[in-house]
Amino acid sequence: MSKSVLVVGGGIAGIQASLDLANRGTKVYLIEKTPSIGGRMAQLDKTFPTLDCSICILAPKMIECLRHSNISLLTYSEVQHVEGEEGNFTVKILRKPRYVEFSKCTGCGTCMEKCPVKVPNEFDMGLGKRKAIYMPFKQAVPLVATIDAEHCLYFSRKICGVCQKVCPSNAIDYNQKPEEIDLNVASIILATGFDIFDPSAIGEYGYGRFQNVLTSMEFERIICASGPTGGHLVRPSDGKEPRSVVFVQCVGSRNLHGRFPFCSSVCCVYATKESILVKEHSPQTQPYIMYIDMRAVGKGFQEFVDRAREEYGVKYIKAHPGGIAEDPATKNLQIHYEDTKSGEMKKLDADLVVLCPALIPKTENKRLAEEMGIELDDASFFKAKDLLTAPMDTTSAGIYICGYCQGPKDIPESVAQASGAAARAAETIALTTKGRKQ
Amino acid sequence: MSDKHKPRIGVFVCHCGVNIGGVVNVPAVVEYAKAQPNVAYAEGNLYTCSSEGLYKIKEAIKKYDLDRVVVASCTPRTHEPLFRAACEEANLNKYMFHMANIREQCSWVHAREPEKATEKAKETVKMAIAKAALLEPQTEPEIEVQPSALVIGGGVSGMTAAISLANQGFNVSLVEKNKELGGKLCELYRLYPSDKLSSEVLGEYIQSVRSNPNIKIYTSSTVKRVDGFIGNFEVTLNRKIYTQIYLAQEHEEKLKAGTIVVATGADVFKPDGMHCYGENRNVITQLELEKLMKEGKLGKPKNILMIQCVGAREGKVGGRNYCSRICCTMALKNAMIIKEMLPDSEVSILYRDMQAYGKDFEEQYEKARQNFVQFIRYDDDSPPEVRSGANGKLSVKVHDILVNYTLELDADLIVLSTPLVKSEDAAELSKLLKVPLGADGFFLEAHVKLRPVDFATDGIFLCGTAHGPKTIPESIIQAYAAASRAGIPMALGKVRTEAITARVDETRCTGCGTCVKLCTYSAIRKDEHGVARVNDVLCKGCGVCSASCPEKAIDMRHFSDAQIIAEATSAIGGS
Fold first, then answer.
1. How many CB atoms lie within 10 A of CB A209?
2. Of A256, A388, A431, which is closest to B472 when you measure between CB atoms?
3. Could you tell me the pTM of the whole model?
4. B-chain residues within 8 Å CB-CB of A232?
5. Do residues A251 and A295 both lie within one domain?
6. Which one of A189, B90, B257, B389 has the fewest CB atoms closer than 10 angstroms to its CB?
7. pLDDT band at B484 (very low <50, low <70, confident <90, very high)
8. Is A141 an interface residue toward B (CB < 8 Å)?
């Protein structure tokens, strides 16, 4: 019987579950698909309702994962195959080649400076550029470069090779091959997080057509000091500070006739936070939030909304916009909406519009579920065994779920559920090794 | 002092991207630091907390033979453990590390005055260097942790935490003040999301708790006194033992616990005097409705109106301003049950914002609409007015903003959705355990985002509605979380506590006893020679004793008078 645990997903939920288990002496394999752990929380500027700097409170935990003697961090890796049962799973992991030798790279960044290929930076939601050899962000863990073979000239055209020439540690290895690892674990915790709905599917909002219509995650990167604009609140079309910013709630979510009928749970309050950040960055700018129901249900959230309204002057409008138009000359926007309160059709001019899109289940949930022999719910979140009394258990014993991949939730709820999943995994180990599992 | 013993301080100044570097001239601060006494090495880092920055600290300790490290960056609250660990990895005692905050206390607050901010950063770093020169290595006391937990509260949260801890292999004492386990589950009818009766679910829980050999149940018991600290709490219970149904003998019982989980739940707000509640018996709360349905005493009301946010989201100074999170979905659930029980009834929900957050509640909301539950939306500033007319006939006047029309509605039954409020026992328990309450009287966690079920006090955890309003599944999730957190020190069997404690100079102590009286943590006593003795494990390092000792016989480890004076002197230009 194994006594170790596999945690799939290196966002805040996966990190918390890993640390709880490792700190009690359990061996943990933390596997993350991208080159760095950190997940969505690493991309956020501040967090609600305390306005803590997100990466500042997350980074110590990321580094703890790296340093912890009980945690094996497997980044840039994916689960390929799972067999076995509670107490004794065999998991095949695919380690994708970084083309950089992990043990040699010091994270100095010389290769990134010299690489000639610029690629839209996923971490900045494509707003900034990274190189074909890159580290996703400055606090990345591990701080090791990765070559994106799809864009690298060496791989596409067999030319360049600059990174290999300039690397002071001889860490570049173009011949690296994918590697398969077999793990034996007692339990598996899934913490795969969420994807963001692409609002260009809602044509009338103009996302993708109008430069000054952004998603909220793009806005997070713009307002963030480490983001592509250095934290200056500017709009993409002309680099000027907007005088008015409108946040639109429920973009793609709560859509009974669309694919995502559910509520994403976090948008009302993060839009409130983003509105406060607008005011802090630019006191002359007026933020508006257009919403259906103001769902500020967490601890201290309603008070946070009250503060935004009263102290910061954020304007809340009960409305769900019908469409957004752009003035092609100025790139200014106009929002057409029905005011819920008066029933009148109204228009609101805006320099910048921020859409708050549905946060949706990961597309790879389906494959993972099939591989693990667990069920998905009708929305493709991982299905809890019993939503009332067993919200961390999947339909298969020994496999647990936490964070947004089980259903919409905010950071503290994800952290709590991650600790909860760790408790369930600890129970599995205690009971299977004792041989008296209930 | 010979050169051999001269401190060798390394200073690392963080840019924190542009957070500090965009305001403070970091290279200038580094140069300034290099010129300070005892500084053997100084450098700037883009992010000192990144793995690269930490690596540089460790390398510099070895390369420059540093015996003290100063990092000038953000707050020790989040980052000190990280830098201390880096020092330890380079074989430097972690108390030889000191931090200067040049972000929260400098660049962020002086963002528009970069030059002055740079000067302030220099001064702040200079002060930290002055203190660092006097740092001494410290040893942290190691404490054994008893593998047994005390869970206070026998509702669904407490029972869940108890079951998980017991399954992890620990002994659990589950304490419930009432005669029966169950908490609010005892009062509810059917539970969403399931079709199960609350009594059925409760039965399953009680069965699991009772059949688990690791759990000892103390019903009709309250916590009277808590002494000790993480690993070794000594708890005194006040236990009632019923000899006959109404006849109980009270006695004290002592038990030991390594960790404590608070799961004392919440109460439901009674809206006395609001909307004719208390005046007309057909005006009831949601919880009272649950009870009527459970006992089959609902009768056959035709028109049922539910009013949301009664006593919640008041939006006024000193008001109950929070959203109670569960009332909307409780109303949805009960509206559907009534529709099923009484198909001819009309159920209307008068609400402000329908808090059907997440996936399943939104589906439930849609189902309620399909089942002809009426939704009437009132505005924050025009709440519904309930009138109790002749013969107790109820009517409600409400302006529905969805149709922009003022309605007059007759009602046979009015159900007020009132918020969960702090438990009446919370304040006393907070004093007993020395853990804080938030503004609304719910227990306050250590960190709102990242430590939702920890208290700042080591070894004590919380879960469920004692923390704030939440649903049953959310309470269960937190209960498992608390069980994980409490399980950590118990699984390890030992913990280390901070070495920042008081030390007494016995030659100076006159045995006046001032410190003994002032110590909040009962950490000081007088020994047989009349000299003050500090229990390092109980001492929280608050410094009250040190500040008030008339003989200056008490000094704080890591915050000694000499260190503080050196820091302060450096700030006012002395040396």
1. 11
2. A388
3. 0.94
4. none
5. yes
6. B389
7. very high
8. yes
Q: pLDDT by residue (tens digit) across B534-564?
A: 998 888 899 999 999 999 999 999 999 999 9
Q: What does the pLDDT read at residue B521?
A: 83
| CATH, residue A247 | 3.50.50.60
A138 — contact with chain B (CB < 8 Å)?
A: yes
pLDDT band, very low/low/confident/very high, at A436 (cuts 50, 70, 90): very low
Cβ A416–B55 below 8 Å, yes or no?
Answer: no
Q: Does residue A371 belong to any structural domain of this protein?
A: yes
- The answer to whether A431 and A195 are in contact (CB under 8 A) is no
**Are A300 and A405 members of one domain?**
no
pLDDT at residue A31 greater than cutoff 80: yes
DSSP string, B221-258: EEEEEEEEETTEEEEEEEEEEESSSS-EEEEEEEEEES
Asked if A377 reaches chain B (Cβ–Cβ under 8 Å), the answer is yes
For residues B5 and A134, what is the distance between their CA atoms, to the nearest angstrom?
45
**In chain B, which residue's Cα lies nearest the Cα of A230?**
B18
Give the pLDDT mean for A377-393. Answer: 96
Does residue A343 sit in the same domain as residue A209?
Answer: yes
Distance CA(A146)–CA(B275), nearest Å, equals 65
H-only helix segments in B377-523: 426-433, 472-492, 514-518
Tens-digit pLDDT profile for residues B244-261? 777 778 899 999 999 999
Residues 6+ apart with CB under 8 A from B286: B268, B306, B327, B330, B331, B334, B415, B416, B417, B418
- Chain A residue with CA closest to B329: the answer is A297
CATH superfamily of domain region B148-267+421-495: FAD/NAD(P)-binding domain (3.50.50.60)
Q: Check if A438 contacts B (Cβ < 8 Å).
A: yes
Of A143, A295, A299, the CB nearest to B51: A143
Q: Using CB atoms, pick whichever of A20, A302, A413 lies closest to residue B313.
A: A302
Section A397-408 average pLDDT = 97
Do A242 and A236 meet the contact criterion of CB atoms below 8 Å apart? no
One domain, residues A205 and A332: yes
DSSP B180: S
Task: Round the CA-based radius of gyration of chain B to a whole number and report it.
Answer: 30
Smallest CA–CA separation between B397 and chain A, in Å? Answer: 18
Q: Where are the domains of chain B?
A: 3-138, 148-267+421-495, 276-293+306-412, 502-557
CA distances from A132 to A124, A313, B385, B480 (A): 15, 43, 65, 43
pLDDT for res B574: 64
Measured CA to CA, the distance from residue A82 to residue A370 in angstroms comes to: 10
**A306-342 residue pLDDT tens:** 999 999 999 999 999 999 999 999 999 999 999 998 8
Mean pLDDT of chain A: 95
Q: What is the pLDDT of residue A259?
A: 81
Same domain, A208 and A298: yes
Residue reference for tokens 């009263």: A310
**Whole domain around residue A115: which residue ranges?**
110-166
Buried/exposed code over B121-141 (b: 16+ C-beta within 10 A; e: otherwise):
bbbbbbbbbbbbbbbeebeee
Topology, domain B276-293+306-412: FAD/NAD(P)-binding domain (3.50.50)
Round the average pLDDT of chain B to a whole number and report it. Answer: 94
Q: What's the CATH number for B502-557?
A: 3.30.70.20
